[in-house]
Design brief:
two-stranded antiparallel ribbon; alpha/beta; Lysozyme-like; five-stranded mixed β-sheet; 7 strands
């Protein structure tokens, strides 16, 4: 069944401003609530997103793409010169009651709808495969979404993002340099480590049955990977993949 786009005309919220910088990033979020409740919560908190995708794959445009939505907050990627990526990004919210903590968090309908939307946006704005990111990637100290079980590999299989090859490793072996080279803000090293694992090594990520605790504590303080050797190898593989993308 084709994805249905919401018939209402955006904006559905008042929390936006005119965009003055070109779009370079897409930030993927998730929320436990259904779309209408998401919009109510956004309204209550003075935030917004450009799109919401529900579990049936229905896409709601909340804010026009040419406007800045308030979705990423304090955020950074690869030493970006600003305190927030809002100005240069599009924010997409996914309905996910488990906050991406189980294999069943994201169903086929919603991921197919997401991929269609991502492809259109990527082509329209010439967005790099490196720049489709998780909220937890760009705000590792504050955010856990879209969670460790978000199916990044499906996005790769659609040609939307890059992937790693553990037979091809970066020469660098220093953890902090590798995280920074990939793009993570390493101000809080534990947060950066955990955000990397959420995206690239979910076996290291703990299940948190208390959703509010997860939201209030998006990463364990003083986090150390259980399998440090595997972690460093994965870091080197991802860093090498990013290096290749930046050379294209």
């Amino acid at each position: 069944m084709p994805t249905q786009k919401n018939k209402q005309t955006p904006p559905l919220l008042e929390h936006f401003r005119i965009r003055k910088e070109p779009i370079q990033y897409i930030i993927i979020h998730c929320s436990r609530s259904h779309p209408q409740r998401m919009i109510e919560i956004m309204k209550e908190n003075g935030v917004s997103a450009h799109y919401i995708i529900d579990r049936q794959g229905n896409v709601t445009e909340v804010i026009k793409e040419q406007d800045v939505a308030y979705h990423s907050g304090i955020s950074n990627w690869h030493n970006s010169p600003v305190q927030s990526l809002n100005e240069t990004s599009i924010g997409i919210e996914l309905q996910c009651p488990s906050m991406g903590q189980s294999k069943r968090s994201y169903n086929t309908k919603m991921i197919e709808a997401l991929c269609v939307l991502l492809k259109r946006l990527q082509q329209k704005y010439n967005i790099s495969k490196e720049h489709i990111l998780a909220h937890s990637d760009v705000a590792p100290e504050r955010k856990p979404d879209p969670g460790a079980w978000f199916p990044w590999k499906k996005l790769y299989q659609k040609g939307l993002i890059y992937w790693y090859d553990e037979r091809s490793l970066a020469k660098e072996k220093d953890e902090e340099k590798l995280l920074k080279d990939i793009g993570y803000d390493i101000t809080d090293l534990s947060a950066a480590r955990y955000a990397f694992c959420r995206r690239w090594l979910h076996e290291e990520v703990l299940f948190d049955k208390e959703m509010q605790h997860l939201l209030d504590n998006p990463y364990p303080k003083n986090f150390q990977p259980k399998d440090k050797k595997r972690y460093i190898k994965r870091l080197r593989a991802v860093a090498k993949a990013v290096e290749k993308i930046r050379q294209e």
